[in-house]
Design goal:
501 residues, alpha/beta, seven-stranded mixed beta sheet, three-stranded antiparallel beta sheet, 12 helices, 17 strands, globular, oxidoreductase, oxidoreductase activity, FAD/NAD-bd_sf, iron
Length: 501
């Protein structure tokens, strides 16, 4: 039996394991995919950092991102890198932590988590039970948390739930683009029958964060088996309307990576995001999630092939697109094809309803300071489009952003309290949650970045170590001891820029 079981070999899970090893605990890490490093090793290699650089601290900065820097002979953290470098660092840190790592281990249902009263006692994956004294959910899906019976939310709360001005269905803050003729058809959905400010179970768009190269050994974009150029009719109109000359004008300005590689993201109003396809993912079975992953891959792979080959595009555009390809030295064993990312970017899944729910108010003065801070953060409230729907004769609405412009709503530098990482008092006593932490949709929109997840993973590791030492429920933690443990290895819990410092 391990002291701690960590579900998810994400940066959050890795940082938790490293912190635990420094306290003398060896963790078992169960990873539902075939790779360690989460989305950072799976394609998200343009890392969003806080608006106040000093907020990124601790082992996340000094060991994970500085470890990536060391891969390139650089002294200090690096935030533009190659997936293979992130995976090497992830593996090395897990080895340093002495963690027992098992990949391809998925929690399927509540039957896969054993509890005794208010404590989790074991997790089953692949027909094998794994016992531990403490558990950390560091996954993007929150399956351990959910299977343990911890309350959670999916989608968007209504504005009245937490008195958040940006919550719920927000048509007045939506993008509106046109003309599109027609303005219906995949991936545009039906007009929502929802009142403004009303909640729903819809999640913001996911995508694959692709990596492209222009090197001579690039792999050409493959033609998917069920390729349908008709899927990209709206994108064709949008490219013509915007006067986009080629793929290079879409990807080269976003992120130039080492060794001649480039990062893809949404890019345009119609782009690599696929609004609507993510809605079933958070609460879906793994079979349903795999269907969603396949649909997202068809959209992304088909788009790349379409950009390079469709005769409706000018030959100059297609020729430019063919100067790009997939990198042969990345994702060699991806189940979605050589050179294509093996991880879907799950921007937001379940969100725990825990001891404290982080909301829009916590991101802004005067509620931005906390007595039990485990990390500082500052990043604008960023939600991608949730849904496309038609309006009038030629407009497509992209609803779900929190501003309706390219500028996201600003936040103040804020502190994240330990209470967002644990179930409510009276709930599960030996569990912390690093990624699907307790927050509203709006509250989650700012801190949902991988470096912050890493720092929250560190806090989860220290909370676990303290609970193991004292034998007390995690909700009865001693903050002075927690703060001392966190700062011992570089965490920053307060900054002078915060009000009241």
């Amino acid at each position: 039996m391990s002291d701690v079981l960590i579900y998810g070999a994400t940066p959050a899970g890795i940082m938790a394991a490293l912190r635990l090893s420094l306290r003398g605990h060896r963790a078992t890490v169960l990873e539902p995919t075939g790779h360690v490093g989460g989305i950072v090793a799976g394609g998200l290699v343009k890392t969003d950092t806080p608006d106040v650089p000093e907020a990124l601290a601790g082992l996340t900065r000094d060991r994970y991102f500085a470890g990536i820097g060391a891969e390139y002979g650089e002294d200090g953290p690096k935030f533009l890198f190659e997936p293979k470098a992130a995976e090497r660092v992830s593996r090395r840190l897990l080895e340093e932590a002495g963690a027992l790592v098992k990949t391809g281990r998925r929690i399927g249902s509540g039957a896969d988590v054993e509890t005794d009263g208010k404590r989790v006692t074991a997790v089953r994956t692949g027909g094998e039970w794994h016992r531990a004294r403490f558990f950390i959910d560091a996954s993007y899906e929150g399956d351990l948390m959910a299977a343990a019976g911890v309350p959670y939310a999916v989608g968007r709360e209504g504005a009245s739930r937490y008195d958040e001005t940006l919550a719920g269905f927000q048509p007045s803050r939506a993008y509106r683009r046109g003309p599109f003729k027609p303005n219906t058809g995949y991936p545009v959905g039906p007009v929502p029958r929802t009142a403004e400010g009303e909640g729903d179970h819809k999640t913001q768009a996911y995508n694959f964060r692709g990596v492209l190269t222009r090197e001579a050994d690039r792999l050409p974009f493959p033609k998917p088996e069920d390729y349908d150029p008709g899927r990209y009719g709206h994108l064709l109109q949008h490219l013509r309307d915007r006067g986009v000359a080629g793929l290079s004008s879409i990807v080269t300005h976003t992120a130039a990576l080492p060794n001649g590689k480039f990062q893809t993201n949404q890019a345009l109003f119609f782009g690599f995001d696929l609004p609507g396809a993510s809605w079933d993912y958070p609460d879906g079975s793994w079979r349903r999630r795999d269907e969603i992953i396949a649909e997202q891959a068809r959209w992304h792979q088909g788009m790349l092939y379409w950009l390079a080959n469709d005769p409706a595009l000018p030959e100059s555009f297609r020729a430019d697109a063919r100067t790009f390809g997939l990198p042969p030295d990345e994702f060699a064993d991806s189940p979605l094809g050589h050179g294509f990312p093996h991880a879907l970017y799950v921007r937001e899944g379940r969100r725990m309803l825990g001891q404290h729910v982080l909301t829009q108010h916590d991101l802004l003065r005067p509620h931005n300071t906390k007595a039990t801070s485990v990390a500082c953060w500052a990043y604008a409230m960023d939600s991608h489009v949730v849904q496309y729907y038609p309006e009038g004769d030629g407009t497509v609405v992209g609803e779900g952003t929190l501003s309706g412009t390219v500028v996201n709503p600003a936040v103040d530098l804020y502190q994240i309290p330990a209470e967002v990482l644990m179930p409510s008092r009276g709930g599960v006593e030996n569990l912390t949650v690093a990624i699907c932490f307790s927050a509203s949709h709006v509250g989650f929109s700012s801190p949902r970045m991988e470096p912050n997840f890493g720092m929250l993973g560190e806090a989860c590791g220290e909370l676990a170590a303290q609970s193991l030492r004292t034998g007390l429920p995690v909700q009865d933690y001693d903050y002075a001891d927690l703060a001392a443990a966190l700062t011992e290895h570089g965490s920053v819990l307060a900054l002078p820029q915060q009000e009241g410092e």
